[in-house]
Amino acid sequence: MKARVLVLVLVVIVGLTGCAKKGRPLVPLALDRGATPQAVTLTEQGTQAYQTKQFDAAKQYFSQAVAADPQSGQTHYNYALALNALGDVDEARQHFIEAANLAPGDKTIWDSPALHQYGNPQTEKVTKEHRTTNSRPTFGGGPR
User: Fold this and answer.
1) Residues 24-53: pLDDT tens digits?
2) Distance of alpha carbon 52 from its chain centroid, rounded?
3) Domains in the chain, please, with CATH?
4) For an engineered disulfide with 141, which of 4, 112, 124, 127 has Cβ 3.0 to 4.6 Å away?
5) What are the CA-CA distances from residue 10 to residues 1, 4, 61, 92 (Å)?
6) Which positions of the chain have pLDDT values less than 50?
7) What SS3 state is found at 99?
8) Three-state DSSP class for 126?
9) Can you state the angle between helices 73-85 and 89-102, rounded to 10 degrees?
């Protein structure tokens, strides 16, 4: 009887651990109040396309939002989500990193699973070298 209870407890613990690792679904972010009206409109259209799994359309809207507000971490993050959904992981990586660099206090960007797979976001900026090579980028310029 004790063995069955122990096995049941272990199964529950393993099951809960597995569920906890899935995390939240990746969703586009709304822009900050200081964003240009054009970027806000494009982001809303891109978000609608992304949520209906029209990733090519979302990519186009988010790309235009980046052009309209290139200093917004949220525009780069949203564009990276669409690129990632389309399988363009190299370009997505660059925009996830740019988003983190432009929005150092945005916990959603910094804590996103999409960004964590590309490096350790514990320091300042990514060096230009990592943007032009195929090496795995690291935040803060590399090993210390």
Assistant:
1) 678 999 998 889 999 999 999 999 999 999
2) 18
3) 28-132 (1.25.40.10)
4) 127
5) 14, 10, 47, 38
6) 5-12, 14-21, 121-144
7) helix
8) strand
9) 160
